[in-house]
Design brief:
Protein name: DUF1656 domain-containing protein
Pfam family, one: DUF1656
Radius of gyration: 15 Å
Structural class: mainly alpha
Organism: Acinetobacter faecalis
Helix content: over 70%
Number of strands: 2
InterPro entries: DUF1656
Oligomer: single chain
Keywords: Cell membrane, Membrane, Transmembrane, Transmembrane helix
Number of helices: 2
Strand order of the largest sheet: 1-2
């Protein structure tokens, strides 16, 4: 995967991607919260976990396509 050297500290690229995916998840959660309140999504914690994994996979795939 690789890492970045930031002032002598090696930071894995997957960590950067996961933080970016979490920020994107928080934005998506603003749109899906009304659906949870209406009861259209029965298990919100599992839904958000799956959504986070999908977002992380898409971001990781995008990094591989663009930077490799």
């Amino acid at each position: 995967m690789g890492e970045l050297n930031i002032y002598g500290v090696y930071v894995p690229t997957l960590l950067i991607q996961s933080v970016f995916a979490y920020g994107l998840l928080r934005l998506v959660m603003l749109g899906t919260d009304p659906l949870i309140e209406k009861g259209w999504i029965p298990l919100p914690s599992i839904f958000y976990l799956c959504l986070y994994v999908i977002l992380l996979w898409l971001i990781h795939w995008g990094f591989i396509v663009c930077f490799v």
